[in-house]
Recover the amino acids of this structure.
């Protein structure tokens, strides 16, 4: 029995409904684009494509196509929506982040100084890159201090040289 389809696609909704769901899923988010891709695969299966040819046309692995079809057959359109869990929890609590923000508001710190503060105060080790990411997500900006400030210190020129460290500010 060469060439016969072994696992048929269950026709849960009409082709027009699939088209509508595809256009709704294209909302610019990662989750939406993945859902649209999966629904496009199902649309191709409705149109008579084999799992292999539909997967090849979309540039996905054939096994992924079989997995998507199985999800569709068992749970329908909602089963194709990817379930992102939101990523790993931060090592720092919201309270710790707020205390860090207050410390930076008192006195601007360099990335290295913030990293040392986190290690000393909270006993949490982060790389400098991760500290940068955390501070950026907190809405802090990275800038040289005293750029055009009437209160600039006497050694402002030395501090503003290219090799001087950047400070985190609110």
């Amino acid at each position: 029995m060469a060439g016969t389809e072994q696992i048929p696609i269950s026709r849960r909704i009409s082709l027009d409904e699939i088209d509508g769901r595809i256009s709704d899923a294209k909302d610019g988010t990662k989750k939406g684009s993945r859902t649209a891709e999966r629904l496009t695969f199902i649309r191709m299966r409705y149109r008579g494509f084999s799992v292999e040819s539909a997967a090849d046309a979309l540039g996905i692995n054939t096994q992924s196509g079989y997995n998507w079809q199985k999800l569709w057959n068992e749970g329908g359109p909602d089963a194709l929506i990817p379930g992102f869990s939101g990523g790993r929890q931060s090592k720092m609590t919201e309270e710790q982040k707020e205390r860090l923000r207050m410390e930076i508001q008192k006195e601007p710190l360099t990335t290295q100084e913030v990293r040392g503060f986190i290690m000393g105060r909270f006993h949490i080790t982060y790389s400098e890159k991760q500290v940068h990411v955390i501070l950026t997500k907190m809405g802090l900006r990275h800038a040289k201090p005293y750029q055009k400030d009437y209160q600039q210190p006497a050694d402002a020129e030395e501090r503003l040289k290219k090799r001087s460290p950047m400070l985190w500010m609110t």
